[in-house]
Amino acid sequence: MRNRIAAFGFLALALTFAPPVKAQHTASLTWTASSDAVANPTLGYNVYRLAGACPTSGTAGFTKLNTATVTTTSFTDSTISLGNACYYVTATLNGAESVPSNTASTVILPGAPTLLKITGTT
Question: Which end of the chain is least crowded, N or C, by CB within 10 Å?
Fold first, then answer.
């Protein structure tokens, strides 16, 4: 933080300017349970993300996001950055993974500027 002091006659003002706060972006994912979930209550899911547009085929370059098996059919990615991202999910049971789900893509846009002011006209 930066402090500024302004003096106007006998009145002094201390102003504190806080640096902008980094925006926290998230992507909330949901999917339909595996058809094997009812018969296998310990079945879970792994979530993968690729920074960039979804490829036309394959899963090269994707990174697994969860450290523990996801036990529900939803996941919130709180580590996503600005730009394009692509996701897929696999079902997992006893260390074996299914083939990947379909891919889903998103674009995280930068926040809009705020407090626009007119500072002069001619």
Answer: C
Contacts of 35 (CB under 8 A, 6+ apart): none
Q: At which residue do the structure tokens 């899963």 appear?
A: 59
Does residue 76 register a pLDDT over 50? yes
3-class SS string, the chain: CEEEEEEECCEEEEEEECCCCCCCCCEEEECCCCCCCCCCCCCEEEEEEEECCCCCCCCCCCEECCCCCECCCEEEECCCCCEEEEEEEEEEECCEECCCCCCEEEEECCCCCCCCCCCCCC
The domain 27-108 is classified under which CATH number: 3.40.47.10, 2.60.40.10, 2.40.50.140, 3.40.640.10? 2.60.40.10
pTM equals 0.77
